[in-house]
Amino acid sequence: QAVVDxxxxxxxxxxFQGHDVGFCCLGxxxxxxxxxxxxxxxxxxxxQAAELARAGGCKHFILQSSRGANAQSCFLYLRxxxxxxxLVQAVxxxxxxxxxxxxxLCRRQESRPIEWIAQQFLGAVARLFPTAYSVPxxxxxxxxxxxxxxxxxxxxxxxxxGAIHELGKA
Length: 170
Fold this sequence. Notes:
Residues 4-151 form the NAD(P)-binding domain. One of its GO terms (cellular component) is cytoplasm. InterPro entries: NAD(P)-bd_dom, NAD(P)-bd_dom_sf. This is Protein HTATIP2. The protein has 170 residues and is an alpha/beta fold. The chain has five helices and six strands. The strands form two sheets. A four-stranded parallel beta sheet has the order 1-2-3-6, with helices on both faces. Strands 4-5 form a two-stranded parallel ribbon. Helix 3 (113-128) links the parallel strand 4 and strand 5. The mean pLDDT is 90.
């Protein structure tokens, strides 16, 4: 494990060398980092990490994005996720897999009361409609590993929430 300073990511290029597959789940929230900080982390850091990974020999980059990602969206979150998807695809990996999960079900260390309420509600809904509105983070991780083990055909593959559930069960 290498700890890097994302503000000086270029100084850590060696940490990105010699890997066949890159996994990226980097992200923050607008509430935590502000609008500019959110863009810097969720778009700029991710794009720079992808470029360093490709320069270091990475052939398959697996990016966790978000349901609804769209570079043309009027919503900052969805627009930034769409922009970073485009930037990562433009890097030129042999394979690029983009996962677009719905609401991530997980336990967080910091307190987010509204998110906690939403997770409780969506957790209950998930019992009736398991792939509709949410996905456990463990399932996303298993799907990412499955993608690495069998990248499939084509240069770019985008997996929506239902496909993430299917791969995560395998």
